[in-house]
Amino acid sequence: MTAFRQRGCHEDEDTARFSGPRLTWLAARVIDGFMGHLADADRETGDWSGFCRSSWPGWRGRARERRLEKRVAHEPVLLALDDLHWADPITLLALRAMTRELASYPLVWMLTRTIGSGDWSRLNCLFHVLERNGATRITLEPLDERAVEDVVTDVLGAKPEPDVLALAGIVDGNPFLLVDLLEKLKSEGVFQLADDRVRMVSARLPQVRAIGRERLEGLPVRTRYLLQCAGILGHSFSVRDLAEMLGEPASTLLPMLEEAISAGIIKPAGDELSFRHDLLWQAVIGTIPDSVRRAMHHDVGEMLLKRGGSAVPAAAHLLHSATRGDASALLGLDRAAQEVLRSSPQTAVDLAMRALELSDPADPEWFGRAATAVNALTVIGRLSEAADLARSALGRASSLHAPRLRCALSHILLWSGRPADAVSEAENLLAQQDIPSDLRGIAEWTMFWGLIWQNDLRKGRQRAEAVLAHRERHTDAAVVGALLLLARFAMVDGRGADSFTHLREALLITDSGTVEAVQRPYARLLLSLQYRSMRQFDAADIAIQAAEEEIESLGLTVLAPQPALFRSVLHLIAGRYDDAAAEAQTGKTIAEELGTHGFIRVGLSVLAFIAMRRGDIDAAVRYIERFQSTHAAPGMLFGPVWEKWVMAVVAEGQGDPGRAIDILRTIYTDEEERRWALLTMPLTAAWMTRLALAVENRPYAQAMVDTAEHLARNNPDFPMFATASAHARGILCADPDALASAIDQPEPWIRASAAEDLGALLAATSGTDAAAKAVDKLDQALDGYEQIGALSDAARVRARLRALGVRRRHWNQPQRPTFGWESLTETERAVAGLIARGMTNRQIAQRMFLSPHTVSTHLRRMFGKLDIASRTELARIVAEECPELVKGA
């Protein structure tokens, strides 16, 4: 109740009801398929009981998260999720994201786990994060003697004698088992009430499962047999499966089913039947000897396999029953693992690893199972385990099986942040004769992408052109890889139009579905980078969104950090530092969960740059130190140029331009590196020219200007290159006209930077009105920096103004307070207004061209500034402080 009050729900003291919309209670068990409930819940009744066993299908859960968000936007919800120890790593990761993204809604999560079960490290990580974010951890200790006595008194209606308390002791203080035990024994007449005391009729202390067995013994033999078969099928089961297992028509089972229902052992559950309690189910199963139970599971698995269709239902039984060398069962596990590889890779891992355990090393199918397990481990981000298994299998693989494992290993190396090793592995594979064409295509794609990642384009250019010249000899995967490398080369060569042509052709092929799923998002990610370089920010955001949807729909968890990181850099260039930081933090957090170290480095470098712009040098240095200690190549598509530039910005901010020059030396001296630097970050041309002049290295400055002018000449259809060239030339040649033309740029930081450069030049110029013009341009720069929160740059401009005898306060407004309505930024106020108008986070994200992650971050900050905990309170404050926002003004 306290949690609901914190979420803006108010309890009526008299009626114990919630005011406003009714409270919906949604309960689920992880083992039964939490995400399935989100899709199937009855929208009117809130009945979430009709579950089927399934696990979260990777990042497709976003669609279900949207359904949940729509629901909690209209009514308070208590979502109780039980048996969390059964959750796979992807579900735990998704829960961590959902609790964060939906934190502003009247939604209370109640998550339960059993100590000593499940993935301890991931569960502890999730619970520690939730607790750090304000969740309350409640540990249910075993009931003490006094509590046990109170429960017994409450259930049996009298104080218990010692023999009854001794009986209660067999459940070890578990309240559920205690109540269940007492109720069953009470119904069996085990207790006797006299003189306000309750004692046992018999001194015998029955075991818990014996109670269920006693109830079974009262049933006819055929009915007991039917229940044993049903128990093998599961806690819930279909009558069709039961009839087929017994070899009888369903109609002949009706009398026995009625007896079992009347005895209170099973009950109807939608289209199926289920046992009333886990204890009853376990009691039934406990009557079957282990060897017989395994044989029955085997028979059910074979029955379901012979039926045809999906092998997944059979797999649950085969996991229980398959024995070493059981060819039919192992093939069933193989089929099931392949089926769920995309939708639930964690399940695929479990199935494939179990099949490997049961396979004879001499079994020719062993290597195929190993390859499936390696691929599944890779997709869910368990890269080190995947690599270990791949290398172990390669140690004894024949020439027939080794190529597929080497292909898998090259992918692992790529996503582990080791592109050079990935390229080497792919090249070794391609040097072999007579490898299957599909594997050759995958190896060629890996080689091309590894070279793109390393920015080693010359090495791959000739081979890529050879692939395109003889397309009929290569797979679509190889052709796509070649097109992507040539698109990147065209970008670096300054031929933007050619790059777009290659990328669009690659997209046509990937959209046809003829390449590996994990290869498909890269064309759109590279397209977003190209649009960003051309300052077409809306088109870049659309490409990122399309790539994100593809990653989610294909279950490519290993690539999950990328969209947030791409979006963070896009926000960075647009001067939206809060949004950039939120996306970078999101991408970094996901990458840390998955262990994809290259992506962690990207997130840290973005955060370091933002800290530098905000004037927090200490934080920037800490971020740099952290990503330097992360042993991996820079993240995909960003390359070493990006990270070198960020490190140089921090070094220059620390007052060490010489060290900044040393960090950037390869960029200053290599023409391709310079071109890519200017394409990666549009402000590098002017900034690096200015840095070179600061250490009196005019040749380096001239090299930057020459490269900027080359890009401008080769891309006449993209005027931003001419503007960037004018900015760099204006700095080098002290040309006020060039600097004046450079001010007309879409990026706020670059626009302010050009105004500052022009103001500084005018301040050093003699003339009657030069000083006044300098102040005007410096004021323009100051306003631009302060609007985007570039505090360190604003401080530098204020120092320039003071040198001209002009003092300016922080911005043109009073200092923003730390708390209260006036502490909110313009973006935060805009978000608050849309919240007050009833929009969900995702609707706000679409309206403001942000991601839901960013909207959630703004909400958390607003809640802290306003000392509130719910959207309802925020809407009230908006209506009081700024009613025009509610009206949409």
Summarize the structure.
One of its GO terms (molecular function) is DNA binding. By secondary structure, the protein is mainly α.
Structure commentary:
The chain has 889 residues and is mainly alpha-helical. Among the domains are: 2-132, no CATH class; 145-206; 210-288, Orthogonal Bundle (Arc Repressor Mutant, subunit A), CATH 1.10.10.10; 587-803, Serine Threonine Protein Phosphatase 5, Tetratricopeptide repeat (Alpha Horseshoe), CATH 1.25.40; 821-886, Orthogonal Bundle (Arc Repressor Mutant, subunit A), CATH 1.10.10.10. It contains 47 helices and nine strands. The strands form three sheets. Strands 1-2-3 form a three-stranded parallel sheet, with no helix packed on it. A three-stranded mixed sheet has the order 4-6-5. A three-stranded antiparallel sheet has the order 7-9-8. Strand 5 and strand 6 form a beta hairpin. The radius of gyration is 33 Å and the shape is globular. The chain starts with a helix and ends with a helix. Mean pLDDT is 82; it is low at 10-22 and 29-60.
